[in-house]
Amino acid sequence: MIQLSRWKITLVALSLVLGLFLAYPSVLSPAQREALPSWLPSNGLNLGLDLQGGSYLLLEVDVPEMREKRVSNLMEDVRVSLREDQVNILGMQREAGGVVVTVAEGAAYDTAFNTLRTMAQQGAGATGQPDRVATKLGGGRLRYAFTDVALNSMGATAVDQSIEVVRRRLDSSGTKEIAITRQGADRIVVQAPGQSDPAELERLVGRTAQLTFQMVDTSPTGLNDALAGRVPPDAELLTDDQGTPYLVKRRILVSGENLTRAGIGTDQNQRPAIDFQFDGQGARRFAEATAQNLGKPFAIILDGKVISAPTIQSAITGGSGQITGSFTIASASELVNLLNGGALPAPLNVEERRVVTAELGADAVAAGALSTALGFVVIVVFMIVAYGFLFGGISVLGLILNGILIVAAMSLTQATLTLPGIAGLILTFAVAVDANVLIYERMRDEARQGRSVIASMDAGFNRAMGTIVDANLTTLVAALIMFMFGAGPVRGFAWTLTIGVFTSVFSSVLVAQVLLGYWLKVAKPKKLPIAE
């Protein structure tokens, strides 16, 4: 193993060059990195919230509100479907997970049950099984409700979807290295390094961005009755940004869930507008709705506010359209970002917000740099005192390459360096030196038993490798467990440690082999220096 192989020399040289190439931007300022040519890497180390400062938000997913809305939509589906089948509804009572409908006994009862059963079979949950069920209660009463499995899974699904929506919104806005993690059953932690205004972050993250298309109630006295407090059960009273009231049907024709793309366009007056495209299902439903309601207005609603209420002139069959209104370029761009990021399945309530100042981050960086430097110096002194300038110096050179490779790997993967990550970096140095100590001590033992220099060095690498692999494999398993089940700084520590396991084995073993092999070839020693 101590042979001076050409491939080992090439691999060490390439790793050094590539490491310096990728790590170099980390020593530059942001302005200097931006000025680099496009063909050069420009990604430096990303500092976490505890090092760089930034904003922290603790959000709670309003699962009860989401369930309330789902049940409301379910009631409107029942009302419209039974009306289309000409079933007269005598009564409708809302339940926690659904609705109880009362109809006349006889044929109407059977027709209503068949309608509800068909609706239940068409609705599929996340598992592919129906998430709603229709049951007969007798006495003309029918129950149509979400299954217990569907109700229980709504919370977990809403949190997972909210995390993905928040991540898409922040990534598409150009914000980098936002840490978004789940906390408990229904909470989300958002850590935004470099963001000094949590209110702006909250505004961007907290908008539900629920886009719906609903028909406007055009009955002669409908709006006046609603303004007088007599809102029909199948409608709701909404306003636009100017305060103009609209009475709209509760049934949602098409929602933002069917959007495949949103972009900035211009209307006929060259003012900013929102162009949109539906998926196949949305295009079909939109075409049917516009064909059945020619000459009637429909409302485009975003988060409970009417954006516009155009009149349907003809059936819109292409699956695309345009939303016009009093948009500016900035507001249109933000709305496009929100729509492309997706709608939040439930409102997010801010439970806690705080700002970590840059001064605190600077103190943490200084403390981390000092502790890393002290740890490195202690290791250097120990290795030189214990094994001399030759063997100890080779270990130090391996450590330097190890540090370069870690910075390069974290810059390449854009991993975030946190204060616990610095602790992982220091631990990595210790693990790397531990491998050299095992190798050198094995060489020393072999030399003391009278074996030659070459045999002692070869045995040192061969017989120590098993222990080195076992020790690093144990560390790697622990790091992977922390990365999978940890959050925030714990994952940062685990990621730094994981990278360090691979780079430390490479630098402590392969670099030592190449440099000692070169020394052996040039010096041709008769005695191992560390055998004394």
TrEMBL record:
Main location per the UniProt record: membrane
Domain Protein translocase subunit SecDF P1: 159-217
Record domain Protein export membrane protein SecD/SecF C-terminal: where: 352-520
InterPro entries (UniProt xref): SecD (IPR005791), SecD/SecF_arch_bac (IPR022813), SecD/SecF_CS (IPR022646), SecD_1st (IPR048631), SecD_SecF_C (IPR048634), SecD_SecF_C_bact (IPR055344), SecDF_P1_head (IPR054384)
Keywords for the protein's UniProt record, in alphabetical order: Cell membrane, Membrane, Protein transport, Translocation, Transmembrane, Transmembrane helix, Transport
Membrane disposition: Multi-pass membrane protein
Residue intervals passing through the bilayer: 364-387, 394-413, 419-440, 461-487, 493-520
Domain of life from the UniProt record: Bacteria
Domain SecDF P1 head subdomain positions: 237-346
Compartments where found: Cell membrane
Gene3D superfamilies, per the entry: 3.30.1360.200, 3.30.70.3400, Multidrug efflux transporter AcrB transmembrane domain
Subunit structure of this chain's protein: Forms a complex with SecF. Part of the essential Sec protein translocation apparatus which comprises SecA, SecYEG and auxiliary proteins SecDF-YajC and YidC.
Function (record text): Part of the Sec protein translocase complex. Interacts with the SecYEG preprotein conducting channel. SecDF uses the proton motive force (PMF) to complete protein translocation after the ATP-dependent function of SecA.
PANTHER family reported for this sequence: PROTEIN TRANSLOCASE SUBUNIT SECD, PROTEIN-EXPORT MEMBRANE PROTEIN SEC
The family this protein is said to belong to: Belongs to the SecD/SecF family. SecD subfamily.
Protein name: Protein translocase subunit SecD
Gene of this entry: secD
